[in-house]
Design goal:
Shape: globular
Order of helices and strands: EHEHEHEHEHHEHHHE
CATH topology: Rossmann fold
Strand order of the largest sheet: 3-2-1-4-5-6-7
Length: about 250
C-alpha cells in the first residue's frame, strides 16, 4: 500500500502506536508531519527518520489546549499547503477507579483523547474539501466499545471519538473524504508498560491470542484506512485486539 505524493499529519507520533504509524507511512512514500507535545522525543524521531532517509518533520502540539492545536494546524497548512491524511493517534490516561478521579484529571483525559482531535480535524477539513478528498483515521480503543474497569473517563472519551467518526463520515462523504476508526486492544506501548504487572497479566489472559498487540500491528490497520485500498470504506470501526472483544 503506497502513499506517494501524500502529506500526512499524525498526532501522538513520538512513541508507541503513533511512532510506528509515522515510520510506516514514511516508508510507504508519504511526507509525514509528527505532532506531539514531547519536543525532545520529536527531535530524536526526526534524527531516526533522517538516518533511514524518511521524510518526517516534527511539530509541537498540546492536544489538551485547543488554542495550540489550531495554531499548529495553521502552521502546518502555511508550510505544506494541505494535509491529505490526518491520523488522530494521540492518547493519554492513567489506571484509576472512577471514584478516585480528580476533576482536573477527567478534564485532561477528555481534552487529550477527544477534544484535541475534534479541534484539529475541524481546522484541517476545509483544506481537504478544497483539495477534493482526504482520509481521516482516528485511533480510539476497545475500551470505548465495551468499557474498561479503571479507565472509565478514557473509555467515555474514546467512545466519543467513535461517535465522531461515524457522524463525520456521513457529513464528509459528499466531499470524498473517508473517515474511519481503529480500536486497539491492550498494546505493548510505553503507556501500557507503565501499568502494574498484574494489570498487564490480566489483559493477556483475556486476549484470545494470549499476548499484547504490537504497535506495528495497529499501524498496519491505520495504513489500510489511509491508503487507496479503503477508498470505498467510510464510517467504520475496526477492532485490532487479538480477539479480546468479538462483539460490542
Amino acid at each position: 500500500m503506497r502513499l506517494d505524493g501524500k502529506t500526512a499529519m499524525i498526532t501522538g507520533g513520538v512513541s508507541g502506536i503513533g511512532k510506528a504509524t509515522v515510520l510506516e507511512f514514511a516508508r510507504c512514500g508519504a511526507k509525514v508531519i509528527c505532532a506531539d507535545i514531547n519536543a525532545e522525543k520529536g527531535a530524536q524521531l526526526e534524527q531516526e527518520a533522517a538516518a533511514q532517509k524518511l521524510p518526517v518533520e516534527y511539530v509541537k502540539i498540546d492536544m489538551a489546549d485547543r488554542g495550540t492545536v489550531r495554531a499548529c494546524a495553521a502552521q502546518v497548512l502555511e508550510r505544506h499547503g494541505r494535509v491529505d491524511i490526518l491520523v488522530n493517534a494521540a492518547g493519554w490516561n492513567d489506571f484509576q477507579l472512577f471514584l478516585d478521579n480528580k476533576p482536573e484529571y477527567m478534564d485532561r483525559v477528555i481534552a487529550v483523547n477527544l477534544g484535541g482531535a475534534l479541534h484539529l480535524t475541524h481546522a484541517l477539513l476545509p483544506g481537504m474539501i478544497a483539495a477534493g478528498g482526504g482520509k481521516i483515521v482516528s485511533v480510539a480503543s476497545d475500551a470505548g466499545r465495551v468499557g474498561s474497569t479503571g479507565e472509565t473517563v478514557y473509555a467515555a472519551a474514546k467512545a466519543g471519538l467513535i461517535g465522531f467518526t461515524k457522524s463525520l463520515a456521513r457529513e464528509m462523504a459528499r466531499y470524498k473524504i473517508n473517515v474511519n476508526c481503529v480500536c486497539p486492544g491492550p498494546t505493548d506501548t510505553p503507556m501500557l508498560q507503565s501499568r502494574p504487572d498484574k494489570i498487564k497479566e490480566a489483559f493477556i489472559r483475556a486476549i484470545a491470542f494470549r499476548r499484547l498487540g504490537k504497535p506495528q500491528e495497529i499501524a498496519d490497520a491505520i495504513l489500510f484506512f489511509a491508503s487507496p485500498r479503503s477508498d470505498y470504506v467510510t464510517g467504520q470501526v475496526l477492532s485490532v485486539s487479538g480477539g479480546l472483544t468479538f462483539a460490542g
